[in-house]
Amino acid sequence: xxxxxxxxxxxxxxxxxxxxxxxxxxAQQVKRLIRAEGKLYEYQQVLDLQLNEYKGLYDLSRxxxxxxxxxxxxxxxxxxxxxxxxxxxxxxxxxxETVTYRVLALDGYYDPSEKEQAAAITMKYGAPCLSPLLxxxxxxTCTATSTEPGNGCRRRLLMDEFLVYPLGHDxxxxxxxxxxxxxxxxxxxxxxxxxxxxxxxxxxxxxxxxSILDTHIFFERMMxxxxxxxxxxxxxxxxxxxxAEGIFRRTPEGRYLDANPALAHMMGYTSPEELVASITDIxxxxxxxxxxxxxxxxxxxxxxxxxxxxxxxxxxxGSVIWVSLSLRAVRDSEGKVLFxxxxxxxxxxxxxxEAALRExxxxxxxxxxxxxLRVQQAVDELRQKDKMLIMQGRQAxxxxxxxxxxxxxxxxxxxxxxxxxxxxxxxRQTGLSEEFICENVRRSMEIIQQMSQTIDDFRYFYxxxxxxxxxxxSEPLDKALALLNGSLRIHSIEIQxxxxxxxxxxxxxxxxxxxxxxxxxxxxxxxIASRAASPLITVRLYEEGGETxxxxxxxxxxxxxEIKEKIFEPYFTTKGPDQGTGIGLFMCKTIIEKxxxxxxxxxxxxxxxxxxxxxxxxx
Amino acid sequence: xxxxxxxGFSLHKNPADAxxxxxxxxxxxxxxAKPDFVFVFATxxxxxxxLIRSVRDxxxxxxxxxxxxxxxxxxxxxxxxxxxxxxxxxASDEVSFANAYVQGLDAGxxxxxxxxxxxxxxxxxxxxxxxxxxxxxxxxxxxxxxDAFERALGHGRPLPLFGGLAAxxxxxxxxxxxxxxxxxxxxxxxxVMSGNARLAWGVNHGCVxxxxxxxxTRCHGNIIYEIDGIPALEALxxxxxxxxxxxxxxxxxxxxxxxxTPEHLRKEYxxxxxxxxxxxxxxxxxxxxxxxxxxxxxxxxxxxDKELMREGLQAISQHIREQLGENRPKLVMQFxxxxxxxxxxREQEKIELLKSLQDDLGAELPWIGFxxxxxxxxxxxxxxxHNFTSVLLAVY
Lengths: 619, 396
Prior knowledge:
The structure holds 2 protein chains of 2 kinds. Chain A is α+β, with helices and mostly antiparallel strands. Chain A has 4 domains: about 65-220, Beta-Lactamase, CATH 3.30.450; about 245-345, PAS domain (Beta-Lactamase, 2-Layer Sandwich); about 365-460; about 465-615, Histidine kinase-like ATPase, C-terminal domain (Heat Shock Protein 90, 2-Layer Sandwich), CATH 3.30.565.10. Chain A contains 15 helices and 18 strands. In chain A, the strands form 4 sheets. Chain A has a 6-stranded antiparallel sheet. In chain A, α1 (about 5-65) runs antiparallel to α2 (about 70-85), α2 runs antiparallel to α6 (about 195-240) and α11 runs antiparallel to α12 (about 435-460). The termini of chain A are far apart. By secondary structure, chain B is α+β, with helices and mostly antiparallel strands. In chain B, strands 14, 15, 16, 17, 18, 19, 20, 21 and 22 form a 9-stranded antiparallel sheet that branches. Classes of the chains: A alpha+beta, B alpha+beta. The interface of A and B includes residues 35, 48 and 187 of A.
């Protein structure tokens, strides 16, 4: 080569340069290939991871799609998160009736105390921890460095980084899936990151589980509905078979479709089947009264139902029973009556009982009317007796009055006798002068006038009470005292009348005088019997609270305590059979309380008895 | 009785349930009421203490060893997840297992090797067959450890070392090693297998250079400061999609470093030894690997090649079957680089590849393994650490 020509050398150098350049280019290509190969291996790993995940997801989907066991779904889900997605921990919480979520499955908690703590976790849908979900986010992300969405979430979940996904497509999700890691173990697990790529796996899982969960929920609800339907059917069947009442379905045309044993028994058939097969026209074969059946049909046609329709029906043996029927129409979607369903209750005993009751009510009514009549008669008799008693009382007082009149008339009569004898004597001795005659006549007439007044007073007492009058109390009091004046004076009994105003009452005057006389006579007799040193009767007249009060008090020592309660009873007397009738005070109380709507009571004062009459001014 | 072995497996997230499930399954499949020894490989999402406690409870406190991995491997399953556990339960009157551990690597990896050798020496008998090692994968330099360990052990012949470096799924700053009830980090757990057992194994990576030869111009121990006179990170940048701003964990799964295989290993292992860059420093521009290097060493930027990896596994299978002859393995252990799992294969591809391998050797065999941060297995009689490699061991 060294001996080669310059041209050869130049050519060789050019070739060498070209080769070096080519070598350099090849070296660069190799380096690029090396770099590309590194990238290829990286992508290969990522691809493998993704394939592995999709295979796992596919297997999970296949396992879950064949089962409707929701607990299994949840358990498989948390296991998948831990085993396949390689998060350290997973919790699945299911919504209860309220918006509270409770743990239904968990994985990755291997310390027993941590597992127990995690199993007790509850979450409310509105809790701060879930606030991003409420704000419309698809999930809650709490990375190792981010601020936790609610205070204490990390501590409660025992995760230092976590994701929360809602499961199911309800507005308030059926379940929540929480996945994450503790800080100490996070380097060995899939990290919680915000990027879409990092969340793709969880998104795929949540999509699958949500879909299956929705199907589960739908299935669960369907099963619940079917179970409820089955229970309802069983309950209905049990009620139908065991009910005491007859239950049936019949066609609108009058043929039984179905009947329960109770109805068959009620109607005398051995079985529901026999009943249904035997009766082809309810209207003619069952109802005793065709009009009743027609009415039932009419009511059903108009109202679609009939309640407590009472009628008589034939039993199989031809005997008749009473039943109470309740029916309703069952219609198809277009409103056409498919059949009537109804209940039948035998009420024959009730009907018999009702008839018996009606009969006894009639008897009772008759007895009641008779009794009422007898009571009325007794009342009338009592009233008559009262009247008679009052009359007796009045007559007794009248006797007393007559005695007083006799006493009062004795002196004037003696005076008249003396005046008459004086006429005869004077005529014989001196002759009758005009002046003497006039004087004698004047004096005689004066005496006669007095006697006449006495008669008037008596007549005042005795006059019949035809109607109620309004009168001042002092008027009958004065009359009574005038009538008693003689006997009071004889026994030196002083009368003191204390009057405030001019109290008046409305009532029967005669009867009121009778009351006053009775009380005054009793006071007089008590004073005579007590031999009081200064016998005194004090009469007070005044008004109080719209009532007129008449108080008659004596100083005879009072009513003995042992008889105080009895003095107003009829036929009670302390005067002995020759002096008292025992009806005076009873009569007084009857007059004041029944005729005058007032009150009469007796009490003892420090000196004697006091009788108080209280009568409304306008009864 | 011979040897009974069974493998159980669980992906349960609850550590108590997972450990119990895997252990009981292992014992049931091995047909035993109580195992003599238990290997456990699990991933780091679990509460490790609870997990190991549940395994111990289920296995009546049988001696236990193992570590955390990026994933676990058993018959028909290769689960690269944060929650996976597999348990190998062994009951045998012909093979015995004894375990030891050291914790703390601050005194240096050589010192750790010496300390572990002190623990292991009393367990060594003339019939010792092999040692299993499970070490922290975040900070381990194998070469000084191995040299000190083998020297301190003073065994007549070097015991073959198998195992892997514990992984953490890139999600925590810790890996875990298991020794009986203890769960430790920054430690090395060791199991000595003795008795009537023979070994058949294979080691294969599947990486190819993607450029011309490079030279380490400045380094110290397992740290490479400069390549071709520029900072190591700068030299790698052009192979990285987003430059130095890219996720280092992903970068190191796609790119690795290849060194010329020493002559004495080359025949069996191939032209390049592969090294995973377990750490870097953006300010100083360096990267670190799991074995020591010297300035002037040639290196190549390497990439995984799926076809080569597939062919490599088939070669391992073929190789082991040749060693087994008519013998049926008592159990199989697979220490698989995490860079050969889901980061390169589609999930379906990975499972099919694994099943193909398992079908070749025996579909019903007790098979346990894990995805590691580095694999340990002898090549040409020398105990080596590997990256981006599959180490498959059949005990028969």
